[in-house]
Amino acid sequence: MIDPTPIHVPDDVLTDLRARLALTRWPEDAGNQDWYYGVNRAYLQELVEYWRTGYDWRRAEAAINAYEHYLVDVDGVPVHFMRRPGVGPEGGPAPTPLILTHGWPWTFWHWAKVVDPLADPAAYGGDPADAFDVIVPSLPGFGFSGPLPDHPDLNFWKIADIWHSLMTRTLGHARYAAAGCDVGALVTGQLGHKYADELYGIHIGSGQKLTLFNGDRAWDLSAGRPIPENLPADVHAQVIAVEKRFAVHLAAHVLGPSTLAYGLSDSPAGMLAWILERWVNWSDNHGDVETVFSKDDLLTHAMIFWMTNSIGTSIRTYANNNRYPWRPSHDRQPAIEAPTGITFVGYENPPGVGTGQRVRHFLGTDRAAWYNHVNLTAHDRGGHFIPWETPDEWIDDLRRTFRGRR
Question: Which of the listed residues 49, 184, 244, 282 has the most CB atoms within 10 Å of its CB?
Fold first, then answer.
């Protein structure tokens, strides 16, 4: 039996934050009205001023604490997780344990829109037989799962071992389901590789190889390859846009995370700028991030990094994914034997590939052979933060993956 640990941030942390925000020293940002050079100063200043004078952390904290929260030690690693108990059919089987894993710059709260419908489908017009007992941990080194002074080497495949211990030893589940996006999809894929016999299956956003971060040039999204010649102009522009969207954070996080962390840990405005650029560029927002994340949403996620001083350890995981390369636990094929569902979204379609061709395109790549895929679905809309941007589609896809497998 473990006791709940509600989230509570001391008042002095909030007072220090407001003081730091008030003392922000702003750089010149001439000629950046179109965000060509990165985050636009005018919008960031507006957001910082609201953070200092209008944003209410205590209201956000109360919403977060509407759920159960726990802080446990798993193999010597501090792990925070949020739980929403499942509500299944009366007299029927117990809801299936489900662990949801976020990515970067996500927090556990990015799952907030899907937790209740997954746990209590009947309350949302669904079938109670689809109920899950939902476990939402913070990745070690992210938010409330820290600090990590004795574990500087954690990466996605080591975290998968911690998750398996959490679900089986700490929580006592003989079998469970797993889902994740971004880096969380790699953690989930590793669970499906190493612990397939103890999983009902996995559901992920996108399908990458577990060797994604292996190699000397893992920080280079293009792997040093030039853009092919004679591409149609629209496809060439899409290639450039995709590389610009992801290249800077990959290179910085893999090659110099500690250097970057000093500035981001000291300046809340600087930290917000760094992660805001990802939320702006990676979400399907049609030029207005607040159609996806309100100011309060943006700042709640930012607060979880700031209050816990975890931005440095969160970005360290990228370097560790490369420094400690993935190695297989077996040589069977597919490498990820657990039944796998994948949700694809339109904003992340590869250059030149429409939603109608997305599944067929994936099946023609070298990534497809890694998975025992049983449910592949592509949607026209939605960006990188799938359960936040398109929660209904994610829920439907996930339920379809596990229906009949429990």
Answer: 184
Per-residue model confidence (pLDDT) at position 1 = 74
Marked catalytic residue, from 120, 182, 297, 397: 182
Identified catalytic residue from 193, 249, 253, 384 = 384
Q: At residue 291, what is the residue type?
A: T
pLDDT (0 to 100) of residue 240: 86
Calculate the dihedral angle through the C-alpha atoms of 220, 221, 226, 229, rounding to the nearest 10 degrees: -170
Q: Is 37 a catalytic residue?
A: no
Of 21, 38, 106, 47, the C-alpha closest to 277 is: 38
The yes-or-no answer on residue 67 being catalytic is no
Q: Establish whether 384 is a catalytic residue.
A: yes
pLDDT in tens, 28-77: 999 999 999 999 999 999 999 999 999 999 999 999 999 999 999 999 99
pTM of the model: 0.97
Two tokens at 153? 């080497």
Catalytic residue among 318, 371, 373, 379: 318
Task: Report the C-alpha gap between 288 and 274 in whole angstroms.
Answer: 17
